[in-house]
Amino acid sequence: MELKSLLKTVDFEPSLFKALKNYNKKKFISDLMAGVIVGVVAMPLAIAFGIASGVTPEAGLITAIIGGFIVSFLGGSSVQIGGPTGAFIIIVAGIIAQYGMEGLAIATLLAGVMLLVMGLCRFGAIIKFIPYPIVIGFTGGIAVTIFSTQIEDFFGMHIENLPADFFSKWGAYFQNIGSTHIATLLVGVATLLIIMFTPKITKRIPGSLVAIILVTIVVYLLKTFAGLEGVDTIGDRFGTITANIKAPEGFVLNWEVINNLISPAFTIAMLGAIESLLSATVADGVIGERHNSNTELIAQGAANIVSPLFGGIPVTGAIARTMTNINNGGRTPIAGIIHAVVLLLILLLLAPLAVHIPMSCLAAILIVVAYNMSGWRTIRSLSKVKNADVIVLWLTLLLTVVFNLNIAIEIGLLLAVILFLKRVTENVHVSVIRKDLNLDDDDHNLATLEEEHLKLEKGVEVYEIDGPFFFGIANKFDEQMRVLSEKPLVRILRMRKVPFIDSTGLHNLEIFIDSAHKEGIRIILSGVHKSVHETLKKGGITKHMQPENICDNIRDAVAKANAYVTSYKEQ
User: Fold this and answer.
1) Whole-angstrom Cα distance, residue 48 to residue 56?
2) How far apart, in Å, are the Cα atoms of 156 and each of 1, 150, 232, 353, 544?
3) CA–CA separation, 18 vs 3, rounded Å?
4) Torsion angles phi and psi, residue 463, rounded to 5
5) 433 - beta bridge partners?
6) Which 3 state secondary structure label does DSSP give 440?
7) Among 64, 370, 446, 461, which has the minimal tally of Cβ within 10 Å of its Cβ?
8) 428-570 CATH, one of 3.40.50.1390, 3.30.750.24, 1.20.1250.20, 3.40.1500.20
9) What SS3 state is found at 48?
10) How far apart are the first and last CA of the chain?
11) Contacts 24+ apart (CB under 8 A), 561-566
């Protein structure tokens, strides 16, 4: 009972446990078919993402196996497929270049801890509210960067010391365009054409899988019997692929290491959270279910904690593989678990065959991945709307391409907060009423009144705040108070539409009350919500005014104000 209570407190309800309650043979057959297909489809992608990230092909497969299993076993989505994705290619490659493999392992583990804490603290719903233009900017920028990293392999160039930054990299490509290996380029083009035309024949088998099988066989035959040279394969670049999973490794953790890696770890965590919840949300719309975002974050955190211990890279929800799972009949996490088992069998039994896959074939697959994730149609559509969203989108995209994803995510999140505050502040109003006060439908506690308005005596003013009284509107309220020339006898602050008040609001309210008292103006609060009232008590505001001047509704507040003005005039 205590365990159930704890799980409910942290909002941890894995979909697998719910699915097993009504599981049957029919569901298993559907999940089995979907799991096998997704596992086969995930194999070339896992290898491609691993190589493009700067790690071994085995590392990509290990990530898909371990990450796929944990995400399905503990996740909050029925159909989510976890593993390495294209979004992390740039981050992982950058971390390896600067901190090495151990640095990547530590950053991934720290990111897993962050994701775990996000899920335990119920941040799932908050992550999903990151503005859409920022998400599109991230993914668009990542797509452009992935595309730019695949040109060398696609054209068969051999550039020594290829620059890391975007513009220098493209400068090197143009300078070395004459070194293009025609056979390698033809292999890449053939891969693209197969991927493009496969859907016209069948939509159940992804074009990338068909392309990698056909192109690998053709290149192997040409190399063996026709003496084809110069077309690099995985084996030429990495040697043999070992069919085993490393034993868990430990890391040296100290404050200096954590301090150096906390920024890239945060980038991994935020991008992982965004991509996973976006994938789960898209899946919800297709299968008509609703995932548990907090449970999903916990599962993603666990996967990223365990993956680096076995030599893996960051894990997240993969939209393309999740949709493949759905389209082939997968409806419970069992399909995701089967997909992980299939990948394990591929690693153990078929790994030696993967060395014959041409590098230009993998480059072509990643170019298609970049195209699909670019969202260029959405970018074009949003760019037609002339507002702040367009600036945010393009700024995020350019920061991702020109600098790095760490800077883009940090500035993007800052922009998201600024946009949110700007829009909330614009929609929160402070109105001043000096004449009769009209009642509306929100005055449900005054429904028994026959009159439609309340009479205000001369010398009574009502100030109504419509929205949260946080630091943005608090300053706006303070500025409006400063421009008022008239000094009434009573000011009623109507707070029926104030859902919360923060420390800045408390501070401004305290100054407002004290300044009014110094000028001989009485302050009455009306319609204060219970939670706001508790905040006022804890903030010490109630010590600055008489308790009876905090009224439950506007009728009592106006009656009290009118009575005070009348008695004042009679003196």
Assistant:
1) 10
2) 62, 10, 8, 22, 77
3) 16
4) -115, 120
5) 462
6) coil
7) 446
8) 3.30.750.24
9) helix
10) 68
11) 561/456, 561/457, 561/460, 561/490, 561/492, 561/522, 561/524, 562/455, 562/456, 562/457, 562/460, 564/489, 564/490, 564/522, 565/457, 565/458, 565/459, 565/460, 565/489, 565/490, 566/457
Interatomic CA distance for residues 363 and 365, integer angstroms: 5
- Residues near 427 by Cβ (< 8 Å), separated by ≥ 6? 467
What residue type is 243 in one-letter code?
A
Based on its alpha-carbon atoms, the radius of gyration of the chain, rounded to whole angstroms, reads: 31
pLDDT for 485: 53
Residue bearing tokens 């205590």:
2
Which amino acid is it at 325?
N
Single-letter residue type at 139 = T
What the block records as the tokens of 452 is: 């439609």
Which DSSP helix (H) or strand (E) runs through 522?
Answer: strand 522-526
**Are 502 and 533 within 8 A, CB to CB?**
no
Strands of 59-203 (E only): list them: 82-83
- Number of other CB atoms surrounding residue 215 within 10 Å: 23
What DSSP state is assigned to residue 460?
Answer: E
Q: Where in the chain is the domain with CATH 3.30.750.24?
A: 428-570
Mean pLDDT in consecutive groups of 10 residues from the start of the chain, 571 residues: 58 92 92 91 89 90 95 96 90 90 93 95 80 83 89 91 86 93 95 93 83 93 91 87 71 81 92 89 87 95 95 91 89 96 91 88 90 87 80 88 79 78 71 70 48 76 79 59 69 86 82 84 88 86 82 86 84 66
